[in-house]
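Researcher: Sequence recovery benchmark, item below. Answer with residues only.
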């Protein structure tokens, strides 16, 4: 709980940074730290909530006592359903409620600090560019990514040239993209998107036709496969990809 914390998120970028930190912490709780999270959600305890903090730490705790609370509160009683559902279904349910909570916190800050229509739209667009927690936890982000990659590969026979004369990737997915020509499966062409300015989070270079890219499920940045030492064959077996930077950020217990 965060009753003693003072928030000064005055800009869209600051609120989005807060959102990403909380999102990362909850993804960690529901994936890499899932066994510890499972043990914390004892059904014999009172109503418990999953809190994610901008510091990328998470905590299972009782709800805030003050009324009204400092911030919107996560859903109550996640522990009660733990043993009455399949673990995967239970984690997905917690993830869905966590997505709703993160949005409510972000737009609480937007209202508190007087974001106008343009700022609210920009904040939502930045948030919407990231896979939701439920998509990451359920594996839907990976499945959608593979489908878009197949369509992208099929439609790459008609590359679109950008203003610099190079060809742009046809679609970005939430997992990985092998940007090469494949004439298989008869997929319908998808609307082309302009991603010629996409930059690698490691080397900073722009996209070049024929390269394999992979997207971090935590921070949403794209990388050349060669820069992070990931091949497409290996990526196909990765459920949740974390870039080197996000992999080094491990959840630590709050003091």
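Model:
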């Amino acid at each position: 709980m965060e009753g003693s914390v003072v928030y000064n998120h005055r800009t869209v970028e600051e609120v989005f940074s807060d959102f990403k930190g909380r999102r990362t912490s909850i993804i960690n709780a529901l994936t890499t730290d899932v066994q510890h999270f499972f043990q914390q959600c004892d059904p014999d305890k009172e109503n418990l909530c999953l809190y994610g903090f901008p510091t990328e730490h998470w905590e299972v705790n009782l709800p805030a006592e003050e009324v009204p609370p400092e911030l919107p509160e996560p859903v109550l009683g996640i522990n009660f359903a733990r043993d009455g559902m399949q673990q995967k279904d239970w984690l997905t349910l917690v993830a869905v409620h966590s997505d709703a909570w993160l949005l409510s916190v972000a737009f609480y800050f937007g209202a508190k600090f007087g974001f106008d229509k343009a700022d609210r739209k920009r904040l939502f667009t930045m948030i919407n560019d990231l896979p939701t927690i439920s998509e990451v936890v359920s594996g839907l982000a990976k499945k959608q990514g593979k489908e878009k990659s197949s369509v992208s590969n099929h439609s790459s026979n008609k590359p679109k040239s950008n203003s610099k004369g190079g060809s742009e990737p046809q679609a970005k997915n939430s997992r990985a993209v092998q940007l090469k020509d494949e004439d298989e499966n008869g997929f319908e062409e998808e609307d082309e998107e302009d991603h010629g300015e996409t930059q690698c989070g490691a080397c900073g270079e722009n996209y070049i036709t024929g390269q394999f890219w992979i997207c971090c499920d935590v921070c949403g940045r794209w990388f050349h496969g060669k820069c992070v030492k990931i091949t497409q064959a290996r990526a196909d077996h990765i459920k949740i990809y974390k870039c080197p930077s996000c992999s080094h950020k491990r959840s630590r217990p709050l003091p």
